[in-house]
Amino acid sequence: METSSLLSSLHDECRSDNYIEPHYKEWYRVAIDALIEGGLEAYKEFLSKERCSEFLADEEIDYILNNVHKLPQNTVYSSNHAIDDTSSSGTYWPIESDVEAPNLDLGWPYLMPGISGGTNIDLLFHPPRAQPYTIKETIRKMIRDARKTVDKVIAIVMDMFTDVDIFREIVEASARGIAVYLLLDESNFSHFLKMTEKQGCQVQRLRGLEYKP
């Protein structure tokens, strides 16, 4: 199956290169409301009626069904939240690892010492502060703006990857000839595969995209 046929909803040649489709869709909210109010059957019935694709991972659906509770109308929110500062050691060792680095079959840009310049780090906030877009829109724009060059790759590291919009962007990037690497948490890797299956995409057949659990 051609990649373009999988992502036909993204093909709109009249849009400018700088256009970023809003990630919020009203039917997302309505579908989640149906899930909360009527359960899984009501959620799937809504998607079928509106001819919408599934956008929630199975774990997200389970979490919503098991954790969302309707609050009484007279509920008062408290601003006194306890902070648990024992959840992280606060220590980061970027050059230490207990496993070997994975093979990068698609290549990796070689930068000669002293020529590459400084490292760029962008700190993004949600809701946005200085940047004009949300974090998700910024990521999608960076992926969409990437062009094929000898020193251009896209590398994404996530504990869980179930976002269909960002996935479609990286598939489009790989179709443009850009090497794309995904490094995902092994314990959550099955959720990524389920998400790709729901989108009708077999990632094993995508050239230019390599993923490691």
From TrEMBL:
One of its GO terms (molecular function) is protein kinase binding. This is Scaffolding anchor of CK1 domain-containing protein. Pfam families: SACK1 (PF07894). GO terms for cellular component: cytoplasm; membrane. It comes from the Eukaryota. Residues 13-209 form the Scaffolding anchor of CK1 domain. Belongs to the FAM83 family. It comes from Amazona aestiva (Blue-fronted Amazon parrot). One of its GO terms (biological process) is signal transduction. PANTHER family: PROTEIN FAM83A-RELATED.
